[in-house]
Amino acid sequence: MAINLAEKYSNQVDEVIRRGLLSSAGVNNDVEFGGAQTVKVYSLDTAPLNDYNANGGMNRYGQPVELEDTVQEMKMTQQKSFTFTIDKTFEADSPEGVRSAGKALQRQIEQVIIPAIDTYRFSVLADKAGTRIYTELTADNAYDTFVAANTAITDEEFPVEGRVAFCSNDFIELLKKDGGFTKATELAQDRIVFKGMVGDCDGVAIIAVPKRRLPEDTAFIITHPMCAPAPVKLQEYKIHRDPPGIAGTLVEGLLYHDIFVFDKKKKAVAVCFNGEEPEENNG
Predict the structure, then answer these.
(1) Which of 137, 140, 166, 190 is the most exposed place for a label (fewest CB within 10 A)?
(2) C-beta of residue 5 within 8 angstroms of C-beta of residue 238
(3) Is residue 45, in this structure, part of any structural domain at all?
(4) How many whole angstroms separate alpha carbon 247 and alpha carbon 279?
(5) Alpha helices in 65-199 (DSSP H)
């Protein structure tokens, strides 16, 4: 007999994932992938400003130009799965609840699924960032480096409100020691907005991220949720009781997800790496 947890326990499973994901604050669900693996997003260009000519006859507003468009194709690629068994004899020989399939599944979600989603999302954000900074970070330059990255986004005229920064704990420690950083290191409970939020810097919410979830040497990523749709098209978790050939429990999980960065909003994403720029980037 199969128990489909995506149906029977969907609220609990979704809640576990929602509470555990750190990247949720920096993504959106604005692109619809229903029934399709690939979605094309069309963006219209803009027209230049002209000097109005009151004596210009039919072209007082200037010469009309046809607006061109650009197309970005997004193809979902992340189809991940897992499976494991809990033998009935091992379960019988263990203390009650130790080999519970439900608890085992929850651990799988918390310790494997959630970190994997975050890790993939952060890697894409860092790879597609329009602003890339390489520097040897210290307690003397951490704050100025962060402000410079945030200012680069502001200079591109992207919204200030709603930005978030995913920061390594090492960078947060440097930031706390920087004399230029005067914000409190802890927030009152009623000011915490996002999972993992530990403070704010230059008006940007700071979210602490374990080093293993960030790309190598990444100190921080500043972004805005409008930049990156992160669809979760399918997540299905099943527990099979005594399926053919197995005395006990078979657990299976399927996750179909991805993240993309809009081409026209890449400059609203900034990443800082602690260290020198790789030589291949200078070629």
Answers:
(1) 190
(2) yes
(3) no
(4) 56
(5) 88-92, 101-108, 114-128, 142-155, 169-177
